[in-house]
Amino acid sequence: MKKIISRVLTFALFFLVLLVIKTLYDAGVFKSIKPHFAGSEKVVKTAGGAEDIIINRQKEVAYLSVDKRRTTLAGKPTPTPGSIYYLDLKKPDATPVNMLPDFKREFHPHGMSYFRTSSGKELLFVVNHSKLNTHQTIEKFEIRDTQLVYLESIQHNLMTSPNDVVAVGERQFYVTNDHRYLKGWLRTMEDYLKLPLGSVNFYDGKTMKVATSGIAYANGINISSNKKMIFVASPTNGEVIVYTRQPDHTLELVETIKVHTGVDNIELDEKGHLWLGCHPKLFAFVAHQKDSQKKSPSQVIEIIYQQEGIYEVKEVYLNNGNSLSGSSAAVAYKDHLLIGGVFDKKVLWCKMKPTTKDSLPK
């Protein structure tokens, strides 16, 4: 009997060691960082971390989701409220302009989505982590030149831990729930064991339902250029999950793209390519979240996606965290590349050098 118990304990210990090693490997602990980028970069100062960035290609401007997130996470009052900022890409020396200078609601923006209606109205949907609400909200604004006009707050009991949103109509959107558990050791276990407890919800303008579930840390979300597919980032699994939209607005799994890094927000360029701000070393990012002096490498991944099984993954940018720590968003427009981070009070405005043509078959 003692031999059986000893063998069981030995096996359990061996399994635990393997689990720890795999967790460390998947988190990028053993990954070497060799900075590279084919282009130039400059720093644009911001009032807080630009966790998400969106490009309005018709106006050639960028919208930045800015907040002092360490202060917010600590539950302390923020002297400079979170806001959405406007950056004019037509002006090389442009600085961010606050689009909500007189907004009175508690506002801690996270993921965003731009939507243009058939009548030409421009809307911005923003995840808001307001502490005054039992459940988190999606704030809806109308874009009027360099200012936002508040329209409504959308709240639902299914939307417990929203991370990012993608609008598909004037009052319709998909939103990710990155966790089931909101705090404590259960949330920690959910992260470190990579439990697939995240989900994507769909709001039809009146109510909300689960569109798909079983995702480990459902993070960034976006929609394909033809509006038929949805892409969801899973940073703890290092993958982008591809779905097709169904007539009832649920999502059907197509495939997962292994990126092998902590993928965060997803944006599309004018060609329909996916651009991802990433955390190549997740534990370094966790340390950076607690201490601004600890650097977290920044990475930009481009995915050229054509159809199921036909795609190419490229690493466009990598730094050791000195230029920008904790990159969470990357958007490309023409030869511009903007990179934002969760905490650093700056955005990298990069100019990309011309590259060779895509290697995928047409």
Automatic annotation (TrEMBL):
InterPro entries reported in the protein's UniProt record: 6-blade_b-propeller_TolB-like, Arylesterase, Serum_paraoxonase/arylesterase
* Annotated organism of origin: Microscilla marina ATCC 23134
Q: Which Gene3D superfamilies match?
A: TolB, C-terminal domain
* Matching PANTHER family: PARAOXONASE, PARAOXONASE-RELATED
Question: Under which name does UniProt file this protein?
Answer: Serum paraoxonase/arylesterase 2
Keywords annotated in UniProt = Disulfide bond, Glycoprotein, Hydrolase
Of which family is this protein a member?
Belongs to the paraoxonase family.
Q: Which GO terms describe its molecular function?
A: arylesterase activity
Per the record's keyword annotation, is Disulfide bond included, yes or no? yes
